[in-house]
Amino acid sequence: MPLCRVAPLPSNMEEADGSLKDKRLPCFSDAVLIHKDSNILSVEVIESMKAAVAGGKWEEVASVVKELVQKTSRKTVKIAVTGDSGNGMSSFINAIRGIGHEEVDSAPTGVVRTTQVPACYSSSSFPNVELWDLPGTGATAQSIKDYMEEMQFNTYKLFIIVASEQFSSNHVKLAKAVQEMEKRFYVVWTKLDRDLSMSALSEAQLLQSIRRNIQENLQKEQVKEPPIFLLSHMNPLSHDFPELRETLQKDLFNIRKDGLLGTLFHIGKEAINERVKSIRSMDADNLCKDFGISNPDNVEESQKAFEKSFGVDDESLAMQFQDQQGGWPMTCWLHSGAQLLLTGVNKMLSKCFSGLSPTHSQQRQRQVLDEVAKKTKNILWKILEDSTNRPLEGPDN
Predict the structure, then answer these.
(1) Would you say 260 and 41 are in contact if contact means Cβ atoms under 8 Å apart?
(2) DSSP category for residue 33
(3) Between residues 217 and 21, which one has the greater pLDDT?
């Protein structure tokens, strides 16, 4: 039996991170800082997540992620509906809630300024969402900055800027301010039916003209073009209304879960990197002894040993998930290409490095460890992807 005489693996983490370095999930925002007393992601949950990922306990990881996603789906999201007075903000609130102006709990509407103080409304169509009808701008001489402070803009996650007749300087200032806050916002043009009745242009020409006017006014102040929806006052469910509802549903999903999922991926990735660093710091004898590697020149043996240690070998994965119904099925991973990640590398290494010096043997074993780390991150990625119930673009390998 050959002796294990390779040097300890280097502690440099660049290889372990591979092409995942500085990559982020497309429908995940940047990882967010979460207070230690958070009722969603506590310090205890973070440590539990790290330990489960490092130990290859994927069933436990999946359970933690599912529980956290369920908690975030119940998190209340505050949406601010704002704009100039008389632009139809209250009418829009009623339309998005699917109720008529005459109903008891509808937002009051009228030709004069009807909303004097912020008013909160809910809708069964958007559970755990607070729609805040804010008093319009332009009724007083207060600046947009003062208006934002008085309306507590920092407490809202999404803004709907309502306009009609003209896209005023106040609308542009609101859009620019929200963009600077790095918050999502829409522009909703209401009372389209009146515009159509008074314009000599065809409907298509008028719609294009309104959009172009909004876009040009925003571009002058370097505001990136937001989603723009054109709605009818008399028939609020026509024109862009279905698209608006669909967009809002998607954004509510992202607002609730993006920061959490990005943070969980970051936590898991760091746990994997720390594990790789720990393995590389081991001396040669202990590394071979702890991982049961009898021949460090045998690529397949090293691969299997590292995979088993990270819990990403087929046997470990099958044992943990064979009884799951629904949830995170093994077929999703076994056919994702993750299990084939090392095949080409192994063939190349077996050809190129067979019988070479301990230095080359060390390099080969390090590459195998790096590839196993990538595979482990792919498994973590899949768990997060499946928790969203929608496909995400995977990491490059």
Answers:
(1) yes
(2) -
(3) 217
